[in-house]
Specification:
Elements (H helix, E strand, L loop, with lengths): L6 E3 L5 E3 L6 E4 H20 L9 E4 L5 E4 L2 H7 L5 H16 L4 H20 L4 H22 L1 E2 L5 H13 L7 H15 L1 E3 L11 E3 L5 E7 L7 E3 L1 E4 L11 E10 L8 H4 L7 H24 L4 E4 L5 H9 L3 E3 L4 H11 L3 E2 L11 E11 L2 E9 L5 E7 L2 H23 L2 E4 L3 H14 L6 H12 L1 H9 L4 H14 L5 E4 L4 E4 L6 E3 H19 L3 E4 L9
Parallel strand pairs: 9-18, 12-13, 12-15, 13-14
Antiparallel strand pairs: 1-2, 3-23, 4-5, 6-19, 7-8, 10-18, 11-17, 12-16, 16-17, 19-22, 20-21
Helix pairs in contact: 1-3, 1-4, 2-3, 3-4, 3-17, 4-14, 4-17, 5-13, 5-14, 5-17, 6-7, 6-12, 7-12, 9-10, 13-14, 13-16, 15-16
This protein binds adenosine-5'-diphosphate and magnesium ion.
Magnesium ion binds next to loops.
């Protein structure tokens, strides 16, 4: 970047300072070139992780802790990207991750390819605005092509959903266990799915399902094997019951949730009492005990037999609670307490003085169980059956962490299909088909946009190309074979099966993905590309200045 303190000149010829001294400005072609370079670097970094034959990345943060992953979104999240255009690439991945949960690597690769092709067109003298228009047109056409080939499925078809989950895990380190994990993902999503009959227009009154994944909590514990992972109809609290003599298994639990400490704040006394005689000390302690006894009495009166406390519980209180056969758990995370309120129908109480039996929640079973070396409390058969937990087990910390990330993708893709029951096949088949159809369609579009559409088609082809490349296959042969077989067999599902390194019908192999993911990938990649192509000026504040990029 050429550094300058930016000065503008008014029509009267007076110079004005537009930016703070030390700021820099990059203009026109240079700005575009600069941004495209940065975006291309990010895309090329991610290329090698795409698909089942993709490599993994080892990420080491500034504290030296290591993450090994194949997840595009995670890689970008952990990388401390500084360049503004590179940051935009990271944003695409984030957007795709939030919306549909999978396809993050693909979106970045496609955006990188779109920018690279655009750069060539700009060099040939086509204005960025024309390219943006052409790309947007091509994107809309691509959506139509996708929707034409998409296969409608039923929202609760277990086999289809399982294959959707499995495909999302094909590229992950945990893919050997994808059978177990994908069953868990499907069962969890179906357990929390809700049918909505709400109609968008008065005439079109069709049913659809909605899934709130906040109801599914994923917990992990290294140790054991991945196949020991399980689905719990309820919640898991990673804390033990406070006293060994409290009941460890409570059937028909009445649960009280408290977000304040069950102890007497010592400061309440400090101001009032100065102890100078021995019997005053005894009185003081007796008073404290009496107050705690009153608190526990209130809990007993509420009818609760389980107390879940967000803060600490005094030893004296523990003693009284034990005598009253109330099982208590202390120092439970606020988020867990709030989730428990939803699951058990309890109200979170902050002051025992204004509490009634109505505030108490319900669960069919509360039980402390041993999980590896810890004791955790399982709260099952909750009043609200839509509270589900997945407990992930596996050989090591790193494995369960990657399994947790893969579970996120799996839950999201299953949710995608439950909410929008349409699928397409993977292995680059859909992308190759779109590219092919777009090239034909482009011949009917005249002018310079024609070239932009062709460039867009080439960019989408980067998915089958990269999949083949990562598998060590001959790229030119593979892509040519996909094209000719798609046309001769009139079959859009011909793609590359990288596992056996062959061109094959990916639908038949059950390598399937949500339509929603492919749509989101193309939309996000196109939008970010368009945004970047329209930038012809980069104004950057000096490093360290407030609001600097
Ligand atoms: P993303 O972050 O884009 O989801 P992935 O690394 O998960 O990236 O790779 C997804 C790609 O891998 C998709 O295009 C999908 O169709 C493809 N894929 C999954 N399984 C196979 C397979 N067995 N053979 C070929 N491609 C596959
Ligand atoms: Mg994926």
């Amino acid at each position: 970047m050429s550094s300058l303190s930016v000065v503008g000149t008014t029509r009267e010829g007076v110079s004005v300072m537009l930016l703070k001294e030390g700021s820099s400005q990059t203009r026109g072609r240079d700005a575009l070139k600069n941004n495209i370079e940065a975006a291309k670097i990010i895309a090329s970094m991610l290329k090698s992780v795409l698909g089942p034959r993709g490599m993994d990345k080892m990420l080491v943060d500034s504290m030296g802790s290591v993450t090994i992953t194949n997840d595009g979104a995670t890689i970008l999240k952990e990388m401390d990207v500084q360049h503004p255009a590179a940051k935009m690439m990271v944003e695409i991945a984030k957007a795709v991750d939030n919306e549909v949960g999978d396809g993050t690597t693909s979106s970045v690769i496609i955006a990188g390819a779109m920018l690279e092709k655009a750069e060539q067109l700009v060099k040939q003298g086509i204005h960025p605005t024309i390219i943006v228009d052409g790309y947007r047109k091509a994107m809309r056409q691509a959506m139509e092509i996708l929707n034409k080939i998409a296969e409608e499925v039923t929202a609760d078809d277990h086999d289809v959903l399982k294959n959707i989950a499995k495909t999302s895990m094909e590229s992950k380190i945990v893919s050997v266990d994808s059978d177990v994990l994908s069953d868990l993902a499907v069962n969890a999503v179906l357990a929390v799915a809700e049918e909505t009959t709400h109609s968008e227009t008065p005439t079109d009154n069709h049913h659809f399902m909605t899934v709130d994944l906040d109801n599914v909590k994923v917990q992990k514990k290294p140790g054991g094997a991945m196949r020991d992972s399980s689905l719990i109809n309820g919640m898991i609290i990673d804390k033990e019951i406070a006293h060994s003599e409290m009941p460890k298994k409570i059937v028909d639990a009445k649960i009280l949730l408290l977000n304040s400490a069950l102890e007497i704040e010592k400061t309440e006394f400090e101001a009032k009492i100065s102890i100078d005689k021995p019997n005053q000390m005894t009185m003081f302690l007796e008073e404290e005990t009496r107050m705690i006894k009153t608190m526990v009495k209130k809990i007993v009166e509420s009818g609760a037999n389980v107390l879940i406390c967000q803060k600490g519980i005094d030893d004296v209180a523990i003693e009284y609670l034990t005598k009253a056969s109330i099982s208590a758990i202390k120092r439970v995370k606020e988020s867990d307490v709030n989730a428990l309120a939803k699951a058990t129908g309890a109200r979170v109480v902050s002051n025992l003085d204004d509490m009634s039996s109505k505030d108490v929640g319900f669960a069919g079973l509360v039980e402390e169980r041993k999980v590896e070396n810890d004791k955790w409390v399982f709260i099952e058969k909750c009043k609200n059956p839509k509270a589900i937990s997945i407990l992930i087990r596996g050989g090591s910390e790193r494995v369960v962490e990657e399994a947790e990330r893969s579970m996120h993708d799996a839950l999201m893709v299953v949710k995608d299909v439950v909410q929008k029951p349409a699928i397409i096949a993977g292995g680059g088949s859909a992308e190759a088909h779109i590219a092919q159809k777009l090239r034909t369609w482009a011949s009917g579009v005249s002018g310079r946009e024609h070239y932009a559409i062709l460039a867009f088609a080439d960019a989408i082809d980067s998915i089958p190309i990269t999949l083949a490349e990562n598998a060590g296959m001959d790229v030119i042969d593979t892509v040519a074979s996909i094209r000719s077989k798609q046309i001769s067999g009139n079959n859009p599902w011909i793609g590359v099966d990288v596992k056996v390194m062959k061109v094959a019908d990916m639908r038949k192999k059950n390598i399937i993905e949500p339509l929603a993911v492919k749509e989101q990938v193309l939309k996000s990649a196109t939008e970010t590309t368009a945004m970047m192509l329209r930038i012809d000026d980069i104004l950057a504040a000096a490093r360290g200045a407030a609001g600097g990029m």
